[in-house]
Known about the structure:
- The chain is α/β, with parallel strands linked by helices.
- The protein has a 7-stranded parallel β-sheet with strand order 3-2-1-4-5-6-11, with helices on both faces. The chain has a two-stranded parallel sheet with strand order 7-10.
- The chain has 2 domains: 2-165 and 199-226 and 261-276, NAD(P)-binding Rossmann-like Domain (Rossmann fold, 3-Layer(aba) Sandwich), CATH 3.40.50; 173-195 and 229-259 and 285-292, UDP-galactose 4-epimerase, domain 1 (Alpha-Beta Complex).
- Helix 1 (12-22) links the parallel strand 1 (2-6) and strand 2.
- The model has no long low-confidence stretch (mean pLDDT 95).
- The relative contact order is 0.14.
- The chain has helices at 12-22, 50-57, 72-77, 79-100, 132-151, 173-182, 202-214, 232-242, 265-271, 279-292, and strands at residues 2-6, 26-31, 41-44, 62-65, 103-109, 155-160, 163-164, 187-190, 196-197, 200-201, 220-224, 230-231, 247-250.
Amino acid sequence: MKALVTGAAGFIGPHVIDRLIADGFDVAAFDLQEVDIPGVRSIVGDLTDAADVDKAVSEVEVVCHIGAIGDVYLAGNEPALAASVNVTGTANIAVAAAKAGARVVYASTWEVYGEPEYQPLDENHPTNPDHPYNITKLAGESMLFAADRLHDVPTMALRLGTAYGVGLRANSVFRIFIDRARAGEPITIQGDGAQSRQFTHVRDIARAFSVACRSDLREVALNTVAPEAISIKELAALVVDRFPTELTFGPPRPGDVPPAAVSATRAADLLGWKAEVPFDEGLAELMDSVVASG
């Protein structure tokens, strides 16, 4: 099966590519810059350019649409940019997929639910996003599901947990804590540190994309999250255990999503997917990789 991965130069994209190759897919990579992965055809293009997207999608059977403004704080500071890439870019994917007869598996986020009305959050929970990031990600879902209904484009959204793993960007909380601790500098926790996330290892996310590419499910969104909730304070403590340094506390950071329990039961029932990488194992692997890279 021929697959296209958008956002191939980002964090999640290369891991999805590796998994697809291992599972026998013929993979092409799409991003603003060239991607150098053996056996993968790199296509340089812009999601907001319909002609670029049409050309890239025209020769594939399935699109793993991961490309986006994924930095929450960038989206908050530049909402027009987030809307252009995350909404218009996804609309371009939908139109191109309709022409090519391709399936689309979309990287959404559990944050589309907004303030919890009940917990754990399941896919029946109302979606009430309240930030340019999750607003535009939900709009991307809506664009694709409309294409499914109107133009017979098989689509599926994976509402991902907060991803972590080797290759995580330097401005992520993981890397900030690890890099500061390794340098002997204090780690500052924004707020009281009780805020938690169901951090989901990128290998588990990549496996979910591979399974979803071969699935017959369509016009469905599935929470794709690990079951274990880890607080920011717990994360910091694990980093300090490896790289001893001082823990300090600062004011809460605006734009942080309140903690919530999220259920991935439907992904297990319908897709046969469950997260497998234990958090302590994934974190140790990430810290090892940072040390090895110098």
